[in-house]
Amino acid sequence: MLLNLLSHTISAVPTLSLSTRRQEARTVGRNGWRVIEEEAHWNPTETAIIVVDMWNEHWSWGATERVNVMAPRMDIVLGRARQNGVQIIHAPSDTMDFYQEHPARQWVLELPHAEPPAEREMPDPPLPVDASDGGSDTGEAESYKAWHRQHPVIEIQNTDAISDNGQEVYNLIHHKGIKNLIFMGVHTNMCVLGRSFAIKQMVRWGLNAVLARDLTDAMYNPFKPPYVSHEEGTQLIIEYIEKFWCPTILSGDLTTPKA
User: Fold this and answer.
1) Rg of the chain over CA atoms, in angstroms?
2) What is the pLDDT of residues 164-173, one digit of tens each?
3) Cβ contact 158:103 at 8 Å
4) What does the buried/exposed string (b/e) look like for 92-124 if buried means 16 or more CB atoms within 10 Å of the residue's CB?
5) CB atoms within 10 A of CB 26
6) Are strands 180-186 and 87-91 parallel, antiparallel or unpaired?
7) Predicted TM-score of the model (pTM)
């Protein structure tokens, strides 16, 4: 199921090229999925970016390496979006103690409670990859909490927000009149979909959502079904999100305004 995205033509906002996948019954030939490309212009004051679990370290060193590569690019994208008036929400789960004195954490805690809307019924098919072993592609036998903060390359300004709680994030969204959410971070098949502040919950609450598909990574071990490379496993999750949850964009849409 796809979202009806609000369009606001604002000169400071780059054009978002939304990719979705729709299942079609054809009168001639075989049924299948078709990629749909659409454009949207989102008002920056009604838009937030949620940075999901971009921790400083992970128990899987393969995951840590990929986050290390992703973080500098993400920081550039966030900086450009912040300049355009987009609210940045940092959501590094299980690290709130580290940020308890940070102004970006404190102002979120002072927001009044906002009652979320009734959740929409959404299809929730099984994921296309098996991550029952934890999803590490670098051979770790056991998981543990290796992180204590967000990746230090990603700047957090005082006007940003810090939260790992869906109700707190909804309080902020309601308070600021935010209608549109851009998700980036890790891991696509776990936290980016399933956290209380993540795609599934926000779509169920009726928010417009997109995933920045080049600023995400899955937890997937190629030794598990469907026995494809790690990169192919991540792409399968991205396609799953395009089919059932929300469109995706490229991060370049946020840094390169189009004529």
Assistant:
1) 18
2) 999 999 999 9
3) yes
4) bbebbebbeebebbeebeebeeeebeeeeeeee
5) 9
6) unpaired
7) 0.91
Strand partners, 209: 181
Return the SS3 of 169.
helix
Give 199-244 pLDDT, tens digit per residue: 999 999 999 999 999 999 999 999 999 999 999 999 999 999 999 9
Asked if residues 213 and 250 have their Cβ atoms less than 8 Å apart, the reply is yes
Give the whole-angstrom CA distance, residue 72 versus residue 54.
11
151 and 71 Cβ atoms separated by less than 8 Å? yes
Query: What's the chain's average pLDDT?
Result: 91
Composition of the chain by helix, strand, coil, percent to 5:
30, 20, 50
Rounded CA separation 248/19 (Å): 5
CB 17 within 8 A of CB 37: yes
The Cα–Cα gap between 57 and 154 comes to 13
Q: Which of 252, 218, 224 is nearest to 236 (CA)?
A: 218
For 76-89, letters b (16+ CB in 10 Å) and e give ebbebbbebebbbb
pLDDT in tens, 24-82: 766 667 778 888 888 888 899 999 999 999 999 999 999 999 999 999 999 999 999 99
Cα-based distances in Å from 98 to 5, 94, 134, 149, 221: 36, 9, 26, 6, 31
